[in-house]
C-alpha cells in the first residue's frame, strides 16, 4: 500500500492538505474518491481542499487544486497563498515567485512578517444588483450585503443561492458582507465544500471589490480594504479601471499546521 507524505496548511482558518509531486506522482486528477476521503474530517486528514505542487517548465511550480468533494476546483486564493508558503518551506523559492494555476499565472511574495501577498487575476464584467453583486475572481462569487452577519444562517441562505435556478448547474460561492468603519466582515458558503468555511480568498477579493462599487466616496486610484473573517484578518488591494479591476493582491497569513504520512 502506498504511503503519502503530506503537509497541512491553513490561511485564516481555510485549511488544505498539501502534496509535493515534483518527484513522485501520488495522486491524479481522476482520484476523486481518494481525494474526498483525505479531505473528510471524520475518515481522513480533514481539510477544505487538497493541493498538488508540481513541476512546470515556465514557472517556479504548478498549483492543482481540488475541492473537499474530490473534484478539481477553480482558483483558490487562500490555497494559493498557502502553496507559496509551502514552496518556501520546500526550498523552491525565497521571497518572490511565479506559479501557474487553473486560471493562469500568478505572482506572489512573502513579506518579512510572514504574510503572503498573492496577485489575483484581473476582474471584469461585474453584475450589480440591489444589495448584491456577481463576479468571477478566479472562482464565481455571489456577494450579498447584510446589516448583521450574526443574524444570517450562512449555510441555509448560502445553499438557497448556490442551488437556485440560476446557479444550480455550475454552482457559485456565496458571500455575506457586513461593512464596518474602514473595512468589511465576510462570511462565505463555498461550493465543493458545500458548507461555510472560516475564510475564502477569492470570496474576500470579490467582497472587497463589491464594497468599493457601493462606496463611490472611496474615490479613484489604488484601494486597500481590510477584511475580517471568522478565521482572522486579510487585506485586499486593487486598482479600479474603467470597466475592470487590476493589480489585485490578496494578502494574509499562511501557516504550517503539521506534517505526516497517510496510507492511500
Describe what you observe in this structure:
This protein has 264 residues and is of the alpha+beta class. It has two domains: 3-119 and 254-263, Diaminopimelate Epimerase, Chain A, domain 1, CATH 3.10.310; 123-248, Roll (Diaminopimelate Epimerase, Chain A, domain 1). The chain has helices at 32-39, 77-89, 154-162, 201-214, and strands at 3-11, 14-20, 49-54, 61-67, 96-101, 104-110, 116-119, 123-124, 127-129, 132-136, 140-145, 173-180, 183-190, 195-197, 223-229, 232-241, 244-252, 255-263. It has an 18-stranded mixed β-sheet that branches. Strand 3 (49-54) and strand 4 form a beta hairpin. It is globular.
CATH superfamily of the largest domain: Diaminopimelate Epimerase, Chain A, domain 1
From the 3D structure, determine the CATH topology of the largest domain: Diaminopimelate Epimerase, Chain A, domain 1
Decide which structural class fits the backbone: alpha+beta
Rg computed from alpha carbons, rounded to a whole number of angstroms: 18 Å
CATH hierarchy: architecture of the largest domain: Roll
Short summary:
Helices cover 17% and strands 44% of the residues. The chain has 4 helices and 18 strands.
Write the layout of secondary structure elements.
Blueprint: E1 3-11, E2 14-20, H1 32-39, E3 49-54, E4 61-67, H2 77-89, E5 96-101, E6 104-110, E7 116-119, E8 123-124, E9 127-129, E10 132-136, E11 140-145, H3 154-162, E12 173-180, E13 183-190, E14 195-197, H4 201-214, E15 223-229, E16 232-241, E17 244-252, E18 255-263
Parallel strand pairs: 2-3, 4-5, 11-12, 13-15
Antiparallel strand pairs: 1-2, 1-18, 3-4, 5-6, 6-7, 7-17, 8-17, 9-10, 10-11, 12-13, 13-14, 15-16, 16-17
Amino acid at each position: 500500500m502506498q504511503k503519502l507524505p503530506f503537509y497541512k496548511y491553513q490561511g485564516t482558518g481555510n485549511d488544505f492538505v498539501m502534496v509535493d509531486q515534483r518527484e513522485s506522482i501520488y495522486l491524479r486528477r481522476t482520484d476523486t474518491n481518494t481525494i474526498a476521503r483525505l479531505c473528510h474530517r471524520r475518515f481522513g486528514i480533514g481539510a477544505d481542499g487538497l493541493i498538488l505542487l508540481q513541476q512546470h517548465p515556465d514557472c517556479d511550480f504548478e498549483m492543482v487544486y481540488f475541492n473537499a468533494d474530490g473534484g478539481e476546483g477553480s482558483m483558490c486564493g487562500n490555497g494559493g497563498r498557502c502553496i507559496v508558503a509551502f514552496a518556501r518551506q520546500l526550498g523552491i523559492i525565497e521571497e518572490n515567485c511565479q506559479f501557474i494555476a487553473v486560471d493562469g499565472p500568478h505572482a506572489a511574495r512573502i513579506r518579512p512578517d510572514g504574510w503572503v501577498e498573492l496577485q489575483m487575476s484581473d476582474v471584469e464584467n461585474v453584475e450589480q444588483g440591489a444589495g448584491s453583486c456577481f463576479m468571477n475572481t478566479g472562482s464565481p462569487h455571489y456577494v450579498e450585503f447584510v446589516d448583521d452577519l450574526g443574524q444570517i444562517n450562512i449555510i441555509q441562505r448560502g445553499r438557497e443561492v448556490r442551488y437556485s435556478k440560476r446557479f444550480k448547474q455550475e454552482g457559485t460561492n456565496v458571500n455575506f458582507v457586513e461593512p464596518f468603519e474602514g473595512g468589511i466582515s465576510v462570511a462565505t458558503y463555498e461550493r465543493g465544500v458545500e458548507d461555510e468555511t472560516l475564510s475564502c480568498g477569492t470570496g474576500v477579493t470579490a467582497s472587497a471589490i463589491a464594497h468599493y462599487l457601493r462606496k463611490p466616496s472611496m474615490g479613484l486610484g489604488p484601494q486597500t480594504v481590510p477584511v475580517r473573517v471568522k478565521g482572522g484578518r486579510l487585506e485586499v488591494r486593487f486598482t479600479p479601471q474603467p470597466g475592470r479591476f487590476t493589480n489585485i493582491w490578496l494578502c494574509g497569513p499562511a501557516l504550517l499546521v503539521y506534517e505526516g504520512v497517510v496510507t492511500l
